[in-house]
Fold this sequence. Notes:
Residues 172-369 form the Tyr recombinase domain. Residues 69-151 form the Core-binding (CB) domain. This protein is mainly alpha-helical and 397 residues long. Helices cover 50% and strands 11% of the residues. The radius of gyration is 32 Å and the shape is elongated. The relative contact order is 0.07.
Amino acid sequence: MKKRRRAQGEGSVFKRWDSQLHRYQWIAQITFKDGKQKQFRVKSEAEGVKLLRKLHREIEEGLMINRTMTVREYLEYWIEEVHKPTIKISSYIKYRKLIRTHILPQLGSIRLEQLSPQMVQKFYVQKLQALSPKTIRDIHGVLHRALQTAVDWKMLAWNVCDVVRPPRLGRAKRKALSLEEVHRLLEAARGHRLEPMIILALVTGMRRGELLALTWGDIDWKARSVEVCKTVEYFPHVGYVEDEPKTEAGKRHIILPVFAMELLKQHRAKQEEAKRVQSSKWQDHDLVFPNQRGGYLSPRYVEKTFGRLAKTAGLKVTFHSLRHTASTLLRSMGVDIKVIQAMLGHSSIQVTADIYSHVFPEMLGKAAEQWDLLWHQTTPQTDTQTDTEQTDHSEGR
């Protein structure tokens, strides 16, 4: 069968015998600038002509045509060669896990150019059966960012994630301990190795990873302050990864109360004794809260042990609840919200206001008391007789 000839460089549409289908098949063929040719099966001559016009438009608009590249090939390249050099190592590990564990098993074999909003939306719905909405939104964020790079590089005409709807996040109910609950928790933790860490978390609102990375060199004994400048996380098959805080606002100085400084001095004295006993086995990383050998304390150990202490106190909270508690207690003490924002290391005061300022019943009571006080100060003194009584007397005259 003769090819239907078109002008040079425009490509061609022709019929070719397909031995597997035992019939003729329409083929659209285009030659790229590098001399390579690509053929596409189409249903009719008209569809072939339409496809060639589309391909030529993409070439004129600068789109890079790579019809065989799969989602797997692109995402592997993107995370390793493009995104990794621009982000923290901890973020890279998390993104890579989302890509390899969740995205690639279901979408990896699809050609990049054929990825559709419907495919991605269906993928999210299926994943919701096993994953939380937050994890789905994390996956969406990574996929959207990766595809946007492909759009910026003219590899794709548009980002399909722009029109895909990830699941909504419900308003998380963050638990903050009341003062009475704090007393119960501290009583349960009295004398335990985690006691100093728990108290420092309550006083400063520092995150678990920030406390685990804290070194004695970060403490200024004269200024009575602690410098928060790093965090540590543990990743399976990788180990402990120390990094900077999530944002620039996360790097901060916190002034400590006198009792907290005294507590740290006592804690350091005990640690020096442990170091002397361990001798050559001690791994001196200068950590404030190390394990029994001086190395990083396991985050899993902290969570599990804290959970047991909380249960002893009759509480159902996580270690991160101490951060919420610190904010709320500071607010109940009358500390300005801008100061709380600086202490917690939030980049936006809205985060501090919306997420961490819990309201205790006693705080509501204080608000009512303040209204009573204000009302009595601003309301003119009147006779004890009510308007009703006065009306009744006048009618009786």
